[in-house]
Predict the structure of LysR substrate-binding domain-containing protein.
Amino acid sequence: MELRDIEIFLTLAEELHFGRTAERLRVSQARVSQAIAKQERRIGAALFDRTSRRVALTPVGRRLREDLQQAHDLLRAGLARAEAAGLGAGRVRLGVIGTLGYELRPHLDAFRSRYPGSEVRFTEVVGSDPFTSLRTGETDVNVLWLPVAEPDLTVGPIVATGGRVLAVPAGHPLAGRDSVSLEDLADNHVADLGPDAPEYWIASMVPTRTPLGRRIPRGPAAHTFHEILSLVAAGLCVHPLGALAARYSSHPGITFVPLQDADDLRLALIWRSTADSPTIRALAETAADIGPLSL
């Protein structure tokens, strides 16, 4: 039995759904059906009971899952050890915005544990220009909010999710509220991050219009996280940020108020598709295994 067929069988045994299995493994549903039929012909017994409403393991299928799962786990562990030895002191230059690096410690600690000698070096990237460092090779992987829809970049696993806040000057009328709405942005200016990032990406954090269609004024200009905070503290604008900013950026001139109707922020690993490497894949696979953290 080929390794891919084993993976298909074990995934279907977990999902009990042909469509979800195909989506998870990134193959066609026909490929899943063909692999299971091939295994059943070889064994001479049904592995799954199928009806229009449900899929269930047969007794033979349950026993096969127990046997194959043990073998599959041992095989993966052996491959991981071999890959770790092959990677040696692989280095990843990781671009992050603000103070996010500390929050990724569970992912990075697991990566270093799996691949001893590997190294992660942090580089700060700015929200006004999130992709250039990847395209020039200054960074290998950036941690950026979604969506990212760039044809030359690969979107990897989501590593963190969290709410959003509005940074407002201390003493601002919004500062005393328990929460604010995106509609409140129409009555204030937000920082203008400039033309170096795609508008769709900027707008996913700093929309151009409120849900009711009111225009949100932009300006003055800012390029870095700290420039944004300085403008807000000076009373020149308000600005939406990830809720993590309120944890690490205590500022005597700024109040962070929850944005009640903003979608949760989703942060993912992003890298240049042509720069894919075993080390980048190892980091991405480790992050996927750990799963997204709640910020």
